[in-house]
Structure formats: structure tokens, C-alpha cells
Design a protein that fits this description.
It is found in: Membrane. The chain is an alpha+beta fold. About 35% of the residues lie in helices and about 25% in strands. It has 6 helices and 7 strands. The strands form 2 sheets. The chain has a 5-stranded mixed beta sheet, with helices on one face. Bound molecules: adenosine-5'-triphosphate (ATP) and magnesium ion.
């Protein structure tokens, strides 16, 4: 279905804002900052599946930011795609692990994984969902500084119709 990714992302972040404000995330002090393009970006996606992907990345950003901090969500466009990014100020991901985190059951160091809970499937599922949409998911990270997860989706342009 065709949806505005601006609206979908706003809606999801509203829900996370509510979780933070209600204290559902214990005492960690998070701030969620939005930096969206003003242009409405249309995508042709399975809304539930893309919601699941964004939920997982947001949950990771919260889960792997032991001190809280700012989570910045950006929405931008290139000439043929929509790009979302979610940046946290958490523990980061060592360089040697970065290329593996999208594999099934891969988790960065066992000690960390055991204390954090989870299955190590979230990002593998997210990658599959993006591939099915003709999109991409990738990450950059610096240890003890934080991580940024990027999602790109093909951009549906309605400009031609506007001109006819
Ligand atoms: P779940 O299946 O519940 O999502 P998970 O969070 O361990 O479990 P993934 O979401 O697939 O699994 O993430 C894989 C691994 O990548 C994590 O175990 C964690 O080590 C690392 N990771 C993911 N996101 C971040 C992040 N924002 N900061 C630091 N490490 C991360
Ligand atoms: Mg996860």
C-alpha cells in the first residue's frame, strides 16, 4: 500500500515518546529528536512489516544505550530513494562485529548478550523485510560513542501525475 513514510515514522516515534515519558523504560533518561524533511515521501510498503523493522531498531537503540542519551531520527531523500536513520549514543558495535549483526542469531559478545536478553533475530528479520521491499539496511558505529542504523526504500514519485 502507498503510505507517507513521514506519517508512519511520526506515529511510531510518538509511541516511543509515550513509553519514555510513562517511565516504562526504567530510569534511563532518553530524548528522542526528529529531523525530518518537510517534503512528504511516499513509499509502497507492507506497513506492518516496516513498522516491525523500525520498532526493532528503536528497541535496540534503547536497549544498547545503558546511560540513555539522545536518539536522533532522520528522514531524507536521494534522487530515487527514501533514507531513514536512527542514531544512538550507546555502547556501539566493534568494527569486527559490524558486518555480522544482520546474520541470524549473531550477537556481539556473549556476556553482553546474556545480560541483555533477546534472540539475535531482530536485525536478520529486518534485513529480509528490506530485501523484499527492494530496499537496504546498514549500520555505522563507533565503540563507546554510538551507532547509526540506516534504512533505504525505493521512492515513489507522483510528480508526473501532478504535471499532466
Ligand atoms: P532481538 O532478537 O530481541 O532483537 P537482539 O537485539 O540481540 O535480539 P538484533 O536486534 O538482531 O538482536 O541485534 C543483533 C546484535 O547487534 C545485538 O545482540 C547487539 O549486540 C548488536 N546491536 C544491535 N543494535 C545495536 C545498537 N544500537 N547498539 C549496539 N549494539 C547493537
Ligand atoms: Mg534487537
Amino acid at each position: 500500500e502507498y503510505i507517507s513514510i513521514n506519517d508512519l515514522l511520526s506515529h511510531i516515534l510518538d509511541r516511543f515518546d509515550m513509553m519514555v515519558q510513562s517511565g516504562a523504560l526504567r530510569d534511563k533518561n532518553y530524548q528522542i529528536v526528529r529531523d525530518f524533511t518537510k517534503r512528504t515521501l511516499w513509499v509502497d510498503v507492507d506497513q506492518d512489516k516496516i513498522t516491525q523493522v523500525i520498532d526493532n531498531i528503536m528497541n535496540n537503540a534503547l536497549k544498547y544505550s545503558p546511560e540513555g542519551g539522545t536518539i536522533t531520527c532522520r528522514l531524507m531523500e536521494t534522487h530515487n530513494s527514501v533514507v531513514m536513520s536512527i542514531t544512538d549514543e550507546g555502547m556501539g558495535i566493534p568494527r569486527k562485529d559490524l558486518s555480522h549483526i544482520f546474520e541470524r542469531f549473531y550477537r556481539v559478545d556473549r556476556a553482553r548478550a546474556r545480560s541483555m536478553g533477546g534472540t539475535g533475530l531482530g536485525l536478520a528479520i529486518s534485513k529480509e523485510v528490506l530485501l523484499l521491499h527492494g530496499g537496504r539496511i546498514w549500520a555505522t558505529s563507533l565503540e563507546n560513542k554510538g551507532s547509526t542504523f540506516f534504512i533505504s526504500l525505493p521512492y515513489v514519485s507522483f510528480e508526473e501525475e501532478e504535471w499532466s
